[in-house]
Amino acid sequence: MIVAIVGRPNVGKSTLFNRMVGGRAAIVDATEGTTRDRHYGKTDWNGREFTVIDTGGFTVNSEDIFEKEICRQVEIAIQEADVVVFMVDVEVGITDLDQAMANILRRVKKPVIMVVNKVDNSARNLHSFEFYGLGLGEPFTVSSMSGSGTGEVMDAIVEAL
Ligand code: GDP
Ligand code: MG
């Protein structure tokens, strides 16, 4: 069972990934330091073991690469993952890249769990409502840094697997 974390750069994918896999070593599949690297880690929750993929690794700062990266991440998610975790960032709000990814993910025939990250306090919780606008249902709100809300996401992942 495989869960892929997708989302634009800096939303906090690696922070959540590290929290999920804990101290366990991740396997890195890097292709010559390009945008292709991804990390695989094993985790378990409520007695269910699964693999998490941290997609990402941006080295070139151009919109063109971003667009390609979006397609590639979602491709991985569709091909390899049983469940997709789509991460967005409450600090920044909805961006064009979030929209582009959501447009693709709305058509994916696999469970998509939208996670609003950086909800570090209750004031930020109010801002998370805007993400309903991405058309992917009710978002989970988490602070990957502190770990708050991440248990609920793990529950949802295991339920969807
Ligand atoms: P990625 O590019 O999506 O893998 O994002 P990273 O995990 O590298 O995180 C990007 C930045 O956001 C880092 O500076 C993190 O410390 C920060 N970050 C991650 N999670 C949180 C969070 O829950 N709250 C806050 N305030 N910052 C976070
Ligand atoms: Mg990362």
Automatic annotation (TrEMBL):
Signal peptide segment: none
Domain annotation EngA-type G: ranges: 1-161
Chain sites annotated for binding GTP 1: 7-14, 54-58, 117-120
Transmembrane portions of the chain: none
Family: Belongs to the TRAFAC class TrmE-Era-EngA-EngB-Septin-like GTPase superfamily. EngA (Der) GTPase family.
Functional description taken from the UniProt entry: GTPase that plays an essential role in the late steps of ribosome biogenesis.
Complex and partners: Associates with the 50S ribosomal subunit.
Protein name in UniProt: GTPase Der
Gene expressing this chain: der
Full protein: residues contained: 1 to 161 of 448
